[in-house]
Amino acid sequence: MGRITPLDVEAAKQDLRLRTLEPIGYDFGRLIYLSSLRDFNTGEYYHQGLAHSFSEQAASAALAGCHEEVFYRLALSPLESVLGQVERFIRSSRSDLEKTVNAWETLEAYRVMIPSVCDRLVAELFRSNVKVAMEVLKSRGGIHAEKHPAALQRPLPGQ
């Protein structure tokens, strides 16, 4: 196996951004996608298309890098943005909205979205923002908003 260069990784990241991540349309969805490509036993990432076009090593490094970039961008964005993205993801699920919110609260599935290498305080901020988003959705009837579209337009508490 040859040595990968930063140029190999950057080319793989660009390919990943343009072909895969951009069409997803929002960072919370991108974060879920990227974290799903990580083997939770080893922490290694794998994407067959990237590995075929570049190399397994370049693809894994590109995936890890993009995962960190998307994570930090979302974790450090305003709470209102996080709320909107969490709501968008939950609504995209074909599952019962109330069950989805309850499962996310109970299982804390969002924890697997945190990159292996990241600042502990930023990780805690991310977890906190997702928890707050869930509470806001529940408190404003967001999990039943399909029946009441006006609920989507209510401001966050304190606004």
Structural overview:
With 159 residues, the chain is mainly α. The protein has 2 domains: 6-75, no CATH class; 79-153. 63% of the residues lie in helices and 0% in strands. It contains 7 helices and no strands. α1 packs across α4 (56-75).
Write the layout of secondary structure elements.
Elements: H1 6-24, H2 27-36, H3 48-53, H4 56-75, H5 79-92, H6 97-107, H7 120-139
Helix pairs in contact: 1-4, 2-4, 5-7
Using only CA atoms, what is the Rg? 17 Å
**SS summary, helix count:** 7
The count of β-strands is 0
- What amount of the residues lies in strands? under 5%
Q: Which regions have little confidence, pLDDT < 50, spanning 5+ residues?
A: 144-159
Q: Give the total of domains.
A: 2
Q: By helix and strand content, what is the structural category?
A: mainly alpha
* Helix content, binned percent: 55-70%
Mean pLDDT: 86
Q: How many strands, what sense, and barrel or not for the largest sheet?
A: none
Q: What best-fitting shape do the alpha-carbon axes yield?
A: elongated
Concise description?
The protein is mainly α and about 160 residues long. The chain folds into 2 domains: about 5-75, no CATH class; about 80-155. It contains 7 helices and no strands.
Structural key phrases:
mainly alpha; 159 residues; 7 helices
